[in-house]
Known about the structure:
Blueprint: H1 5-97, H2 103-115, E1 125-129, E2 134-136, H3 158-169, E3 171-177, E4 192-200, E5 205-212, H4 213-236, E6 245-250, E7 255-257, H5 280-290, E8 293-298, E9 309-318, E10 323-330, H6 331-367, H7 370-382, H8 397-443, E11 447-452, E12 457-460, H9 462-465, H10 480-483, H11 486-499, E13 505-513, E14 516-528, E15 534-543, H12 545-591, H13 596-622, E16 631-634, H14 635-649, E17 654-657, E18 666-669, H15 671-687, E19 693-703, E20 718-726, H16 754-764, E21 768-773, E22 779-786, E23 813-817, H17 821-833, E24 837-841, H18 844-853, E25 857-863, H19 871-881, E26 886-891, E27 905-908, H20 913-925
Helix pairs in contact: 1-2, 1-4, 1-6, 7-8, 12-13, 12-17, 13-16, 14-15, 15-16, 18-19
Amino acid sequence: MAHSRLFLRLFSSVLLVVVLFSSAYYLLSVPLVKEKAYQIELDASRTILDNVHEMVGRIRSNIEEQRTTIIETFKSEMRARVALAAGYIDYVLDRHERGEITRAEAERLIYDGLRAFRTGKDDYIWLTNYDAVLLSHADPDWIGQSAAELQDQQGRYIVPTIIERARREGEGYHTYPWKRPGSETAADPRAQKMSYFRDLKRHGLVIGAGAYLDDMDAVIERRMGEAIEDLRQALRNIRIARTGYVYIFDSTRRMLIHPNSNIEGTAFGDLRDPSTGAFIGEALMRAAHENRYLRYLWDKPSDPNNYAYEKITWVRHEPGLDWYIASSVYEEELRSSSTELGNRLFAVSLVIMAVGGGLGYFGARRLVSPLRRLADTAAQVRAGNLDARSGIVRNDEIGDLAATFDGMVRRVKDDIATLDSRVKERTAALENAEARQRLILDAIPAAIAYLDAHERLRFVNRRWSELPHTRRGHVLGRRLREALTADAYDHLSPALKRARTGETTVFEYTVDLGGRPLITRNTVLPQQGAEGAVLGFFVLTLDVTDETERQRHLEEAERLKAVGQLAGGLAHDFNNLLTIILGNLAVARERFADLDELNGYLEPAQRASRRGADITARLLAFSRRQPLKPQPVEVCTLMRETAVLLRRSLPASIALATPGPEDAAWAVADPMQLENALVNLALNGRDAMPDGGTLTIAVRPCADPAAGDFDEPPAAGRYVEIQVRDTGNGFAPGAAARAFEPFFTTKALGSGLGLSMVYGFVKQSGGYIRIDSAPRAGTSITLLLPEGEAPIPDDTPGPVTAGALPSGCRGMLALVVEDDDDVRLVLRQQLIGLGLSVIEASSGEEAMELAGQIEDLRLVVSDIVMPGVSGLTLARHLRATRPEVQVILVSGFSTEEHGEAEGLVILGKPWEKSELAAAIRLPADA
């Protein structure tokens, strides 16, 4: 084979190609690679400098933010100290005004007390009157002295200026020069001070507290020093190439940070470039402003005083701090890596030449054989080159083999082309289906995720990635523990464990969104294979916050409704009992009026019975069964009139704010019950502010209000919003939820019926109510009542006040219908006492029978609620058969419940005898 001319030609050709390729590779690539490597090193040094520059910029931003925060902190502390001191002064002077202490004792207590309000070494509270006489000061020499003539450098009067601003603005801040304790000059320009002042108009005083700006700057300088030290430690760990480093100097060319601690703090403005004689500091600053690098000659630690080594420096300027950040590196260090890379590439070229020559030798030997050509062709086909052909044309077995091989490759190429076309079609169809599926899943109002058996996320829709308890960023392929917050994963992990057993699990998880809860219902469904093994999990998350809130409101409304029904039933039974008690007490007082000693016992019993009637009225109000007379009422006027009465019940320490004369809002409600509700709420607010505060009653029209936290979602429409706010102690946690329950109270002597009465009145009036409260943050109670229209003035004269029973009614025959024997007896006695003749019936059926038989019957007094025939049915029957008979109905419930009784006289239990007499007289007067 070595003597074959074909072999020699092939080998020589291969060897020549290898040599030419290696030479071209070295000559064309090595210089370029070396230059690129050098440029990369140079860019790396600049990138490091840019990163340090960015770090310094962040430090500057943080320092500026901290400066703002520190100043605001000092201001907040001054406001807090002045507020405490003002409260203390009010307290002491109030004691003086009440006569508990003398004026001198009050001034001594104020002076001693204000000295205790010091928080820093030079911070104190000062007090002056409107004449600029200092009444309290840290320097005893100033106390009682006038500061009216004290001026700053611009000739402005310091203390009079503060007093004038305080009286005009009420409070504010003022900066002025003032000496520190121990200083000799009062107005020292080196001791600028900021004071917060407040006008105590009630006492004719101005109080203030100050802080020296030097103290604020000292805190900022300390923070700045800490930041510089952190930066120094970071820069000492940075290396560019082998010995390059980063340093920082300021505009005065003083070295601030340098890896060599001996150089830090020194000035290098007089150092010159040995090659040009230019000042290096100035050249560095110019390079920073021109955004270019600087070259200059310098020595090496290993070769001192030999300024023959070229250095390259990038410089950046930080204007906020007036710093210059520079990176310094020897150029030969930057080029060392490129030189080393060039040498390695040269060695690689030699290796390629040697390897290429050897491969060419062996390849030439193998290529001389047609079989080798077929093998090479087969190798190309196997590598994916289906266009490869052997090219062998012979009329022997090898030629047949080559022709057969080439035909097979051709057919394989055609089959693969057909298969590729079908694969592309199927791939496009799958991509379209997946896009449609993702569009559908993203549009579903639920968060969906799919996990594989190893709890790695393989799919999430858009809503899942927006959940607040998921981590932002790319999550596909990550474990669920890494994609969720720790708390969310702890809640989901038990459900995943149960899902591994094939169980579908549903649970709720709540996330706190800055004080507002987000409630989610999560369902974990396992995906099982043919043999029952769990292949993955579907996690479905729904936002059920609104659903849960609606359910809570519904349950609360149902609970209050049940309590109201129970309260209404109790009130009805108690009204029957109180009717019997009050009726018999009234009869006893009439019959034994000459027994003063007995009347002394009867009067307290009657008062107690009336208080019981008031309690049942409150229960009826809560159960929405109190009698109401809804009508258009101007709420703002009603509140202003009510405020006149309230101010007599409120201490002087409580300020009352009501709508102004220009405000007006009409609502549909019972004016008397609305006034009672407002008085109840105002007195509750008074009890919640034992130390004083502000009670505000506000009114505004409201159209289609949001659901908020009302007892139930308001229906669409126009309302009048009434809000009663106090600045008192507020409700304890959990107490607000039970505030509307009857007999629930947080006061030692409270009855627990005030808010329940307000609740019942609002609901009976077709309105809504809400409580907003927090401990020590005050309480706000909001009422929504239907909006009304101003009525048209009516000049019709009102009813005439009732007098005694007319003599024409005496001897008239009356029928008493009552299933309760004791109540029937009371009615009978009262009617007889009024001069009427009385017959009785214990049921509606019996009354109907008697009314049909007695022609002289002129009056029927009947209970409404009775077994069998009710009072309403009896009244309708008498209207149809005996229209001349007057019917009076009595009820332990509200007369509003019996809409069918419109036009009839209805007395509520318990009633007074005078009310019964007035009711009997009404038909004669009509």
